[in-house]
Amino acid sequence: MEVNRPVQHNTQQSPNIRKHISLILFAFILIFIASIAGIILLARSDVNTTSHIRDIFIIILALEFLFIGVALIVLVIQLAVLLNVLENEIKPILETTRETIVTLKGTTAFLSKHAIKPVINLSSAAAGMKRLIEFIGIIRK
Protein backbone atom coordinates (compact mmCIF):
# COMPACT_ATOMS: atom_id res chain seq x y z
CA MET A 1 0.00 0.00 0.00
CA GLU A 2 1.46 3.33 -1.01
CA VAL A 3 1.38 6.22 1.41
CA ASN A 4 0.66 9.63 -0.05
CA ARG A 5 3.54 11.91 0.79
CA PRO A 6 3.33 15.69 0.69
CA VAL A 7 4.69 17.21 -2.47
CA GLN A 8 8.08 18.79 -1.95
CA HIS A 9 8.85 21.72 -4.21
CA ASN A 10 12.34 21.91 -5.54
CA THR A 11 13.72 25.24 -4.37
CA GLN A 12 16.52 25.10 -6.93
CA GLN A 13 14.03 25.17 -9.76
CA SER A 14 12.54 28.53 -8.79
CA PRO A 15 15.70 30.59 -9.56
CA ASN A 16 16.04 28.78 -12.91
CA ILE A 17 12.47 29.64 -13.83
CA ARG A 18 13.01 33.27 -12.83
CA LYS A 19 16.20 33.36 -14.89
CA HIS A 20 14.38 32.01 -17.97
CA ILE A 21 11.51 34.48 -17.53
CA SER A 22 14.02 37.32 -17.17
CA LEU A 23 15.83 36.25 -20.35
CA ILE A 24 12.58 35.99 -22.32
CA LEU A 25 11.43 39.39 -21.05
CA PHE A 26 14.82 40.90 -21.94
CA ALA A 27 14.60 39.40 -25.46
CA PHE A 28 11.11 40.87 -25.98
CA ILE A 29 12.25 44.30 -24.80
CA LEU A 30 15.29 44.10 -27.08
CA ILE A 31 13.11 43.13 -30.06
CA PHE A 32 10.71 45.98 -29.25
CA ILE A 33 13.55 48.53 -29.09
CA ALA A 34 15.03 47.17 -32.34
CA SER A 35 11.61 47.48 -34.02
CA ILE A 36 11.23 51.09 -32.89
CA ALA A 37 14.77 51.88 -34.12
CA GLY A 38 14.02 50.18 -37.46
CA ILE A 39 10.83 52.19 -37.92
CA ILE A 40 12.67 55.43 -37.18
CA LEU A 41 15.47 54.53 -39.63
CA LEU A 42 12.95 53.55 -42.33
CA ALA A 43 11.08 56.81 -41.85
CA ARG A 44 14.29 58.77 -42.49
CA SER A 45 15.49 56.68 -45.46
CA ASP A 46 14.49 57.17 -49.09
CA VAL A 47 11.39 55.69 -50.70
CA ASN A 48 13.31 53.08 -52.70
CA THR A 49 14.85 51.44 -49.59
CA THR A 50 11.54 51.53 -47.75
CA SER A 51 9.73 49.84 -50.65
CA HIS A 52 12.35 47.06 -50.81
CA ILE A 53 12.03 46.36 -47.09
CA ARG A 54 8.22 46.49 -47.42
CA ASP A 55 8.39 43.89 -50.21
CA ILE A 56 10.60 41.65 -48.07
CA PHE A 57 8.10 41.85 -45.20
CA ILE A 58 5.22 41.05 -47.58
CA ILE A 59 7.09 37.94 -48.75
CA ILE A 60 7.78 36.92 -45.13
CA LEU A 61 4.09 37.37 -44.24
CA ALA A 62 3.04 35.32 -47.28
CA LEU A 63 5.36 32.49 -46.23
CA GLU A 64 4.00 32.73 -42.68
CA PHE A 65 0.40 32.46 -43.94
CA LEU A 66 1.44 29.47 -46.07
CA PHE A 67 2.94 27.81 -42.99
CA ILE A 68 -0.21 28.52 -40.95
CA GLY A 69 -2.36 27.08 -43.76
CA VAL A 70 -0.31 23.87 -43.82
CA ALA A 71 -0.55 23.63 -40.03
CA LEU A 72 -4.35 24.02 -40.23
CA ILE A 73 -4.56 21.29 -42.88
CA VAL A 74 -2.50 18.96 -40.66
CA LEU A 75 -4.77 19.84 -37.74
CA VAL A 76 -7.90 18.97 -39.72
CA ILE A 77 -6.35 15.66 -40.85
CA GLN A 78 -5.44 14.80 -37.25
CA LEU A 79 -9.00 15.63 -36.16
CA ALA A 80 -10.36 13.31 -38.86
CA VAL A 81 -8.03 10.52 -37.68
CA LEU A 82 -9.19 11.07 -34.09
CA LEU A 83 -12.85 10.86 -35.12
CA ASN A 84 -12.09 7.68 -37.07
CA VAL A 85 -10.42 6.13 -34.01
CA LEU A 86 -13.37 7.10 -31.82
CA GLU A 87 -15.88 5.68 -34.30
CA ASN A 88 -14.12 2.43 -35.22
CA GLU A 89 -12.15 1.48 -32.10
CA ILE A 90 -13.57 3.12 -28.99
CA LYS A 91 -17.26 2.65 -29.84
CA PRO A 92 -16.98 -1.17 -30.25
CA ILE A 93 -15.08 -1.37 -26.96
CA LEU A 94 -17.87 0.56 -25.23
CA GLU A 95 -20.52 -1.70 -26.78
CA THR A 96 -18.63 -4.82 -25.66
CA THR A 97 -18.33 -3.36 -22.18
CA ARG A 98 -22.06 -2.65 -22.11
CA GLU A 99 -22.80 -6.27 -23.14
CA THR A 100 -20.45 -7.53 -20.42
CA ILE A 101 -22.24 -5.44 -17.80
CA VAL A 102 -25.62 -6.83 -18.88
CA THR A 103 -24.23 -10.38 -18.68
CA LEU A 104 -22.75 -9.64 -15.25
CA LYS A 105 -26.12 -8.35 -14.02
CA GLY A 106 -27.77 -11.57 -15.21
CA THR A 107 -25.10 -13.69 -13.56
CA THR A 108 -25.47 -11.89 -10.23
CA ALA A 109 -29.25 -12.24 -10.38
CA PHE A 110 -28.89 -15.98 -11.11
CA LEU A 111 -26.39 -16.50 -8.28
CA SER A 112 -28.56 -14.52 -5.89
CA LYS A 113 -31.61 -16.59 -6.73
CA HIS A 114 -30.01 -20.04 -6.90
CA ALA A 115 -27.01 -19.89 -4.53
CA ILE A 116 -27.21 -17.08 -2.03
CA LYS A 117 -30.94 -17.10 -1.26
CA PRO A 118 -31.02 -20.82 -0.37
CA VAL A 119 -27.98 -20.40 1.89
CA ILE A 120 -29.64 -17.46 3.64
CA ASN A 121 -32.90 -19.40 4.02
CA LEU A 122 -31.03 -22.43 5.41
CA SER A 123 -29.07 -20.25 7.80
CA SER A 124 -32.20 -18.48 9.04
CA ALA A 125 -33.99 -21.84 9.48
CA ALA A 126 -31.02 -23.22 11.43
CA ALA A 127 -30.98 -20.12 13.62
CA GLY A 128 -34.71 -20.47 14.20
CA MET A 129 -34.35 -24.16 15.11
CA LYS A 130 -31.50 -23.33 17.49
CA ARG A 131 -33.60 -20.64 19.15
CA LEU A 132 -36.56 -23.03 19.40
CA ILE A 133 -34.38 -25.70 20.99
CA GLU A 134 -32.96 -23.12 23.40
CA PHE A 135 -36.51 -21.95 24.22
CA ILE A 136 -37.68 -25.50 24.90
CA GLY A 137 -34.66 -25.97 27.14
CA ILE A 138 -32.89 -28.87 25.50
CA ILE A 139 -29.73 -26.83 24.93
CA ARG A 140 -28.60 -24.05 27.19
CA LYS A 141 -26.84 -20.92 26.06
In short:
The protein is mainly α.
Which terms would index this structure?
141 residues, mainly alpha, 2 helices
Molecular structure report:
This protein is mostly helical and 141 residues long. It starts with 12 loop residues before the first helix and ends in a 5-residue tail after the last helix.
Query: Portion of residues in helices?
Result: over 70%
Query: Spans of 5+ residues with little confidence (pLDDT < 50)?
Result: none
Number of domains: 1
- Radius of gyration over C-alpha positions, nearest whole angstrom: 39 Å
Calculate the mean pLDDT score and round it: 86
Number of strands: 0
The N- and C-terminal alpha carbons lie at a distance of 43 Å
Secondary structure elements and pairings:
Blueprint: H1 13-44, H2 47-136
